[in-house]
Amino acid sequence: MTDTPVEESLFQIIHCYHEYAAREGDVETLSLEELKALLTDNVPRFMETLGRKEPYYITQLFQAADKNQDNQICFEEFLYILGKLVKDYHLQYHQQLCAHYCTQHSLY
């Protein structure tokens, strides 16, 4: 049986995390620099569209996710970051739908 698109996406997220975590230091955690590289390399349009490319955004995201304050992001903490990204993507999706609807119905 082949993987579903969602299963493949989940596998890709796990693979991406480990690929970037292995770049320096502990191969099971992300440093701030590894997180910055992961986000800017893998979600560039999202980061640009929402103004998230600013260094302070990634630093704040890192600090909020680093629950044990060890200056590293373990996979569990990375899931918090993914949750925030998915939430932002979802909001962006609704804004686009609303804009499309409003344009079609001359509401602007």
TrEMBL record:
This is EF-hand domain-containing protein. One of its GO terms (biological process) is endothelial cell migration. SMART domains: EFh, S_100. Keywords: Calcium, Metal-binding. The keyword Transmembrane does not apply. One of its GO terms (molecular function) is transition metal ion binding. Residues 58-88 form the EF-hand domain. It holds the Pfam family EF-hand_5. PROSITE patterns: EF_HAND_1 (PS00018), EF_HAND_2 (PS50222). One of its GO terms (cellular component) is extracellular exosome. CDD domains: S-100. The keyword Metal-binding applies. InterPro entries: EF-hand-dom_pair (IPR011992), EF_Hand_1_Ca_BS (IPR018247), EF_hand_dom (IPR002048), S-100_dom (IPR034325), S100_Ca-bd_sub (IPR013787).
